[in-house]
UniProtKB/TrEMBL annotation:
EC class: lyase
Keywords: Lyase
Record domain Mandelate racemase/muconate lactonizing enzyme C-terminal: where: 131-260
Protein name: Mannonate dehydratase
EC number annotated for this UniProt entry: 4.2.1.8
Biological classification of the source: Bacteria, Bacillati, Actinomycetota, Actinomycetes, Pseudonocardiales
Length: 405
């Protein structure tokens, strides 16, 4: 049995604490595959892309032909690449791997060649407006068993800072149809962050892996300066130092600092990574499994990255659904040059709507041994949490001009 023809492809929207878009593919044999199609703040664009354009093409296709379907949808779009297209293709790819695993009676990592490690190292987030609070949050993470923690601190004079929440958990997307506006001041950030992170390092001692996300906000020379200033902190990585559009600028950053760099959560295809990898401008490729075109695409990225000693360390905030998290962890378990998996955790009843076999214990993830991806969606429960518009914030400089959030 190979899985048979696809007889239905449907899109579900649910919001158990935050919005998720889910693709459900059913075969003639009654096998169901699940894919994550969530693109934070632009959910309905992907839902429409799937419903209007891809689902009708999927019905009647052979569910077993994963790579052929990927090529068909990618090349067939003509208007290829881009986050909406690639998230939709990624969702289809995940659902088809889920079906293949269920038909074979094997977890997806076995189909990818089997485990190359016993468990997948994860990092989680710690945030604090004040350094003391941040150190407490780091301690809370290490008490949960994490050996790697992303640290984001408040900046004096700014009321809102990327990555730092007002409540117990940080969730950037805000409800409503108009985005929240934040004020950003790079000079204040650069004055404060090296000292704040040095205090965190003094608090933790040398062993703990510390990560920091600059969230696309710096110019090349500012990024170089920050990387250099952070060298004594011994970061595991400094993430998204410059905006994603121009990879060439990373050459300047690299010329000035040995702080490891991680980039790629907003990338959609292998080609956006090509120069960063082949010129060794980054140390970690941060693709998200769905946003980057699925398991099939992430494996291609890992193969290219391996040649250049770059690690693949996928994106894993709360907007990467438990289905995509499962897919990411299956790939991680079976991929030699996997680096680390981000695990932010999930709000609300996400774990009940998406019942998952993957586990996060002692700072490590494991996909479990359930056939397929190992996630089943409780559709009745999902229906009790209807989609509500939510958007990521936008950012302005102190003079009111727009900048990168
Ligand atoms: C990360 C990311 C996220 C993004 C979010 C946007 O490294 O986890 O930067 O926090 O901001 O995924 O939707
Ligand atoms: Mg990031």
């Amino acid at each position: 049995m190979t899985g048979g023809r696809i007889v239905a492809a449907e899109v579900l929207l649910t919001s158990p604490g935050r919005n998720y878009v889910t693709l459900k593919i059913t075969t003639v044999d009654g096998v169901v595959g699940w894919g994550d199609a969530t693109l934070n703040g632009r959910e309905l664009a992907v839902a429409a892309y799937l419903r209007e354009h891809l689902c009708p093409q999927l019905v009647g296709r052979d569910a077993a032909r994963i790579e052929d379907t990927w090529q068909y949808l990618y090349r067939g779009a003509y208007w290829r690449r881009g986050p909406v297209t690639m998230t939709a293709i990624g969702a289809v790819d995940l659902a088809l791997w889920d079906i293949k695993g269920k038909v074979a009676g094997l977890p997806v990592y076995q189909l990818l060649g089997g485990a190359v490690r016993d468990r997948v190292r994860a990092y989680t987030h710690a945030t604090g407006w004040e350094v003391a609070q941040l150190c407490d949050a780091v301690d809370a993470a290490t008490e949960r068993g994490f050996s790697a923690v992303r640290v984001q601190s408040g900046v004096p004079g700014l009321d809102t800072v990327y990555g730092v929440g007002r409540g117990p958990a940080y969730e950037p997307a805000g409800r409503g149809t108009v985005p929240a506006e934040e004020v950003w001041d790079t000079a204040a950030y650069l004055r404060h962050v090296p000292g704040a992170l040095a205090e965190v390092r003094a608090h933790t001692g040398p062993g703990l892996a510390l990560l920091h996300d600059a969230h696309h906000r710096l110019t090349p020379i500012e990024a170089a300066r920050l990387g250099k200033a952070l060298e004594p902190v011994d970061l595991f990585w400094l993430e998204d130092v410059t905006p994603a559009e121009n990879p060439d600028v990373l050459r300047r950053v690299r010329a000035h600092t040995t702080t490891p760099l991680a980039i790629g959560e907003v990338f959609s295809t292998l080609w956006e990574f090509q120069q960063l990898i082949t010129e060794q401008l980054i140390d970690h490729a941060r693709a998200a499994v769905t946003h980057g075109g699925g398991i099939s695409a992430l494996r291609r990225l890992a193969a290219l990255a391996d040649v250049w000693q770059v690690k693949v360390s996928p994106h894993g905030p709360s907007d990467v659904s438990p289905i995509a998290m499962a897919a990411s962890v299956h790939v991680a378990l079976a991929t030699p040059n996997h680096g680390i998996q981000e695990y932010m955790g999930y709000p609300g009843q996400v774990h009940e709507v998406f019942r998952h076999a993957w586990t996060c214990t002692d700072g490590h993830l494991h996909p479990g041994d359930t056939p397929g991806l190992g996630v089943e969606v409780d559709e009745a429960l999902a229906a009790r949490f209807p989609y509500e518009p939510a958007l990521l914030p936008v950012a302005r400089r102190r003079d009111g001009s727009m900048t990168d959030w």
